[in-house]
Structures are given as structure tokens and as C-alpha cells.
Amino acid sequence: MPDKATLKRAAADKRQGKSPSTQAGEFVREEMDHIREGKHGARSAKQAIAIGLSKARRAGVELPPPKKGTTSESTRRRAARDVEVGHEPAHKVSAKRSRATKQALEHEPAAAASHLALSRHAHAVARTRTAAERSASAKKAAATRARNRTARSTAGATGSRGGKSGSTQHRA
Q1: Residue 111 carries which DSSP code?
Q2: What Cα–Cα distance (Å) separates residue 2 from each residue in 33, 51, 102, 167?
Q3: Bridge partners of residue 68, in order along the sequence
Q4: pTM, entire model
Q5: Which pLDDT belongs to residue 151?
Q6: In this structure, are residues 36 and 113 in contact, taking their beta carbons and an 8 Å threshold?
Q7: Residues forming beta bridges with residue 71, ordered by sequence position
Q8: 63 CB-near residues (< 8 Å, 6+ apart)
């Protein structure tokens, strides 16, 4: 079960009109925090991210399953099932299954959430993308940054930031 703070942050992201992947990022962040705190481990950064995405789908984030050909059929089916569960009302979860999963993850290493492991994972994922895809992504990010800069400067001029100065708003 995700923390209340995580659910709140994801709901805030949704209200602000952010993409499902951004909303799901809150659950991935929570998972990384759990691993770093020592609650449990993960076999790899990829597994840790997958756990976070699964939690997001089950919490109701409209994150579609991976496209055909990008992952195994069983992974796609599992993701589709997670999306369905996110639309259903909550029901009692098997304590035995939860305990077994938690104990299995406790035996895994905590290095999966290290900065090195995450940067290696990001680098490996970037290698699978074409130059055109990477370029388009960079252009989109630059446009977003420019848009946010202008929005911040106009908000600063009117003084509607609610007493916060600068762009460093910390998350609780």
C-alpha cells in the first residue's frame, strides 16, 4: 500500500494536468526511498522501477501497459491487470502473499536504488532509443523549461507565489 503522502503528491500532479508517467514517478520515488531506508531490496534498478509502476497502476494512475514487442507478454498482461485493479474498489489482500513477497524482497540487495545503478539504468535505456527520439525528447524538455521560466517570471511579477521565493519548493 502506497504512503498517503505519495498518493497526495500523485493526486496533485494529476490536478496540475501532468502526464500519467509523471504521476507514476511519485510511486517509483517512494520505492527507491524504501530500498534506501532498508525496508526491502530489489534485484536491479529495473525491478525497483517496475514495482513502483505496478503500485501506481494499482492506485489508479492511468498509466497504460507497455506496447507489444517492448516487453514479454506476461509483463504486459500483468500491467493490464494492474490497471484493472486500479479501477476496482479495494478488497482484502492475502496476508500470506504479501508476507511472502516482502520476505523475498528483503533478501535482495539495496544497491538497486544507488545513484550508480540508476544512472547505469538510464544510460542503458537511452542507448535503446534512436538519435531522433533522444533529440525530440530534448527539444520537448527545452520547450517545457522555457514555458516554466516565463510562467515563473510572470508569477513573480504579480507576486502570486504565496510567499515562496525562488523556484526551490521542497517536498515533504
Answers
A1: G
A2: 12, 11, 14, 28
A3: 71
A4: 0.78
A5: 83
A6: yes
A7: 68
A8: 20, 21, 23, 24, 53, 56, 57, 83
Non-local (6+) Cβ contacts of 79 within 8 A are 53, 54, 57, 65, 66
Q: How far apart are the first and last CA of the chain?
A: 19
The H or E element that residue 137 is part of is helix 131-158
**Cell numbers for 168:** 526551490
Please give the residue that has the higher pLDDT: either 61 or 155.
Answer: 61
In angstroms, the CA 144 to CA 168 distance is: 17
Q: Rg of the chain's alpha carbons, rounded to an integer?
A: 18
Q: Specify the amino acid at residue 134.
A: R
Is the distance from CB of 113 to CB of 32 less than 8 angstroms? Answer: yes
The whole-angstrom separation of Cα 136 and Cα 50 is 25
Cα 48 to Cα 28: distance, rounded to the nearest angstrom = 7
**C-beta atoms surrounding 67 within 10 Å:** 8
Q: Tens digit of pLDDT for each residue in 135-165?
A: 999 999 999 999 989 888 887 765 555 545 5
CA 60 to chain centre: 13
Work out whether the CA dihedral 118, 123, 125, 126 comes out positive or negative. Answer: positive
Buried b (16+ CB within 10 A) or exposed e, 27-38: bbebbbebbeee
Residue identified by cell 507514476 is: 24
